[in-house]
Design a protein that fits this description.
By secondary structure, the protein is an alpha+beta fold. 57% of the residues lie in helices and 16% in strands. It is built from 9 helices and 4 strands. Strands 1-2-4-3 form a 4-stranded antiparallel β-sheet. Strand 3 and strand 4 form a beta hairpin. The longest helix has 19 residues. The radius of gyration is 18 Å and the shape is globular. The mean pLDDT is 93.
Length: 204
């Protein structure tokens, strides 16, 4: 885990800069110490059992949020700083998705991804679905329990799970040609994650 902690501490340095905070050795060391302790905790062992969920990554983000809260930043400032800190990682995904958006079957690709992801989540129990419906040109689902949100809840910062909830919205923003994504609610601040993914007709 030592190498992993160092990897995420480099990203945290960028997060501190994005938040307008001092990226001093002391602040970096405090983050590394917190993350090391979290990785050694019983909570991590309890949560690190879902193959479809990168618990190591999630805990690194939770540790960042907890450290930033010490600096009395607003929730919006923390969300913004962490998202910008991971911009390089997310920009790669955005570029790939934009390429897919140019394909005539981009909705079908999104549909297959959702069906595959649902199967993995159902199998390992990382998400609990009230329903997952696939019809002609539409996917609609409601998630009543999400281990991402549960992990953040464990550390008393459930609302910051929005960082991960936003990844779906950001992904579909890069598929505008053939896919319409509607998020009615998510589990960071609501009682369910309710989404609709709809195929756009050619003349829309």
């Amino acid at each position: 885990m030592e190498k992993t902690v160092r990897q995420y501490s480099k990203i945290y340095r960028k997060v501190l800069k994005e938040a307008g905070l001092d990226d001093s050795k002391q602040n970096i060391s405090l983050y590394e110490k917190r993350l090391e302790e979290m990785y050694q905790s019983d909570n991590f062992k309890k949560h690190n059992i879902y193959p479809s969920t990168n618990t190591t990554y999630i805990y690194a983000v939770i540790a960042m949020c907890l450290e930033l809260k010490r600096h009395n930043l607003s929730d919006l400032q923390i969300l913004d700083a962490v998202n910008k800190g991971f911009s390089a990682r997310r920009n790669f995904s955005k570029r790939l998705i934009r390429i897919i958006d140019k394909l005539p079957n981009s909705y079908e690709i999104a549909e297959k991804w959702n069906i595959s992801d649902h199967a993995k989540r159902e199998k390992d129990g990382s998400l609990t679905y009230e329903y997952f419906n696939v019809s002609n040109g539409k996917i609609e689902y409601k998630i009543t329990k999400c281990m991402y949100a549960e992990m953040f809840e464990t550390y008393g910062i459930r609302s910051f799970c929005k960082i991960f909830c936003m990844t779906d919205t950001m992904a579909y923003e890069n598929l505008p040609a053939h896919v319409k994504f509607i998020r009615h609610s998510d589990l960071s601040d609501g009682d369910c994650c309710y989404d609709e993914i709809i195929k756009k007709e050619a003349d829309n």
